Amino acid sequence: MHDVPEPENLPSESVRVFDHSARHPRMAALTQQFSDAELEKRYVLFSAHEALPVTRLGLRMGIALFALFGVLDLWVAPAEFKTLWLIRLLECGVFLGAYLLLQKSRLVEFHQHLMAAVALLAGLGLLAMILIIPDSAANQYYVGLILLIMATYSVFGLRFLPALLVTVTVGTAYLLLVTCIRPIEQTALFNNMLFLCSAVVIGAVGMYGFERQSRIALSRQELLDFERRESLHKALHDPLCGLANRRLLIARIEQAITRLKRFGGMIGVAFIDLDDFKPLNDQFGHRFGDLVLQALSARLATWTRKTDTLARIGGDEFVILLEDIKSREQVAMLVDRLAELFEQPLEVEGRSCTLGASIGVAIHPGDADDAHDLLERADQAMYHAKRHTENHRAFYHDLDEEARHREDHGYQPDHC
After folding, report:
1. C-alpha 30, offset from chain centre
2. How far apart are CA 171 and CA 124, in angstroms?
3. Of 109, 248, 385, 392, which shows the fewest CB atoms inside 10 Å?
4. Rounded to whole angstroms, how far apart are CA atoms 236 and 231?
């Protein structure tokens, strides 16, 4: 058995380059935003989803507490009871509206904006109550501001910066209210602002540390995922050309055969061996040979369909898994078009070189029942094409028993 990923976890051929900046993401000192925009976007969504359960609980608590503290209105400010309760109902409506909006998954990305608006409106509602109640009851309602600040840094699910902006705005508005619009005695002002600023600082420091740790945890997880993907990519791809290697190719063929058992259809395996590569490699050196292989890989990749898999399994051996095939005639047509690619010269470092190729094809169902046998049958057909055909193309099902026996015993594949 080969240790390969499950079919649904096989890496895509299009993913060949990874962002190495993910190894050491930088964060801004105050806002803590990642310098990597994609990583910052992932964190915003991650933090919003993580905060949702607590946020929904906080909104329910907000509705309950705003209604519960309405008892104060009848006790300390009976004359303003109707006006105060109108404000409370409006605030409860804001909380309820935000709660309903956050039930929709497509609005989760606006979580911070929505909850910042809710916290700010709640603060302004409390300030409106303080503005209209008698002086003797002001302290009872001032406590509501402290509770709101605590909620902003905890159950509202806001991150550090939006929570800080909301609480500083509410605190500044309160300071303007009690100094310019409705002044209070200086000792009371000093005590109130001391407690309010202390609540802001304590909440901000705690939230700053929490968000920093959560961001560091996410960046470390991203690094682990990056290294895992990079390691998996190296294990399943050819290091020179970046194509699938034999291990990944076998897994892809097995996956395709499994699909055929459920949905029917046909797949083909085209085994390609370059005819004139060794003399070229010997004449111009291995570095030039590597460049030729890379240029040829790029050309083959442009020819390969999205449903196919292009692999390099040996020095000058390539394999293409042809999926979504309707008939053998379609395979023959694709192979003819593939052969035409090798008639066109490659331009490498100012040199023009033309490489011939021998192509052997095996088809499932018919030629073999499993991935290893199917690849071996295509290999046998390729050797027959190289030795016994003029156009250097052969299908395994066209070989007679003598030819199959001869190719089966006439060589030992070095890639098996």
Report:
1. 26
2. 10
3. 109
4. 9
Place of tokens 């309160």: 174
Q: Are 88 and 70 in contact (CB under 8 A)?
A: yes
Tell me the C-alpha distance between 244 and 238, whole Å.
6
pTM for this structure? 0.66
If you average pLDDT over residues 299-306, what whole number do you get?
Answer: 88
Provide the b/e sequence for 253-272 (b: ≥16 CB within 10 Å). Answer: bbbbbeebeeeeebbbbbbb
Residue linked to tokens 């293409």? 320
Q: With contact defined as beta carbons under 8 Å apart, do 11 and 236 qualify?
A: yes
Q: Print the SS3 string covering 244-297.
A: ECHHHHHHHHHHHHHHHHHHCCEEEEEEEEECCHHHHHHHHCHHHHHHHHHHHH
Q: Encoding tokens for residue 100?
A: 């309903």
Q: Within 10 A of 181 (CB to CB), how many other CB atoms are there?
A: 11
1-55 pLDDT tens trace: 344 444 444 444 443 343 444 456 788 888 899 988 888 888 988 888 889 999 9
The whole-number pLDDT of residue 97 equals 94
* Locus of tokens 């105050």: 30
